[in-house]
Amino acid sequence: MNKIKLVYVVILFSTFGFSQANGIENDLFENETLLYNVHVKMKYFFKTDTTNRQYTVVLEKNKQDSLYGYNFKIFNRHTLYINWGNTLYSISKKDKVYTTSKKVDLNIKNLLLPNRYIKAKDLSDSLRIIEKNRREVVIRRDKKDFKEFNNIYFNYYIDLKNRLSYKITSHVNFQGNSQYKEFLFENIRQKSDVNFKSEIENLKKYRYDSFEKKQKPVSKNSIKVKDFEGYLLSQDETLSLSSYYGKIIILDFWYMSCYPCIKAIPFINKLRNDFTKEDVVVLGVNLIDENKKQIRKFTEDFNIQYEVLLAKNNAYNIKAYPAIVIIDKNKEILYSGSGVRKEEESKIIDIINMALRN
């Protein structure tokens, strides 16, 4: 099946009438490093306004001559990401703190300049040309419906001059509402005099915050918990996080249209059920959605078995979802991280058990 798709893609692209671009394409693919800007627009479910973010990216080609970079630097006013030597460094300019990871999450990958060809493995369901003119071709990739999510598709806007996807948009419907994302890659140019190694050496002026530190027993220097108020969906009342002080608190930050959040629900249910007899409370904190009726229906449809708290104050500065925060009985944070990957689940359980023993 994959071979059939690959042949189909090759045939499809050959019908575009691509010709060797004069100058630009040769420069792009022979040059080792590119510099460009990314403008991201996002419209969430049940929201009318659009959020806008801008980034600058320095992208070094890898040995396979792909525009998916091996080493890269992504930055704006608040955040800096550097990928070097199979390690991702995430730096907070404001807090002068950085963390490291061996994986690059999807939110960061989306900011990397797409390959000049759409890879066959990305064409999971169907592919069709929806628009073509002398300047560009627009390819739509349709995805299968998933439970109440429907009309899911991605549009790739490909410049016929240099064969680059200069814009990617995504769309999905949920309960009669739509979510839209747009990634616009602008001002692509060559970049020289980039030394990723020296960038890493400059991190000496920042404080390293490791995951291992968060797993150690509570110390006097641990980060103190931040209180906030929210609407408890099951009780139809407003309460503060401080009402749970004295217990081990597990906060799961999520929202309805977040696919990774939905995938994490069974694990969060497991935490609630496995520790229900212990002095542990599990709260699903929603900072994005506002319609209580829709959220109640969502919790029923996806079998959410833990309490849901609707809050507006992003006290923990959550930027990526889902995010887990674990607070011990002494009101100190033992763990804070985004994403609930399989390899992280056992670590989270170990941290809870450690907190119960202390």
TrEMBL record:
The protein, known as: TlpA family protein disulfide reductase
Superkingdom, natural source: Bacteria
GO MF annotations in UniProt: antioxidant activity; oxidoreductase activity
Keyword Signal recorded: yes
Thioredoxin domain span: 212-357
Presence of keyword Signal: yes
Lineage per the UniProt record: Bacteria, Pseudomonadati, Bacteroidota, Flavobacteriia, Flavobacteriales
Signal peptide range in chain numbering: 1-21
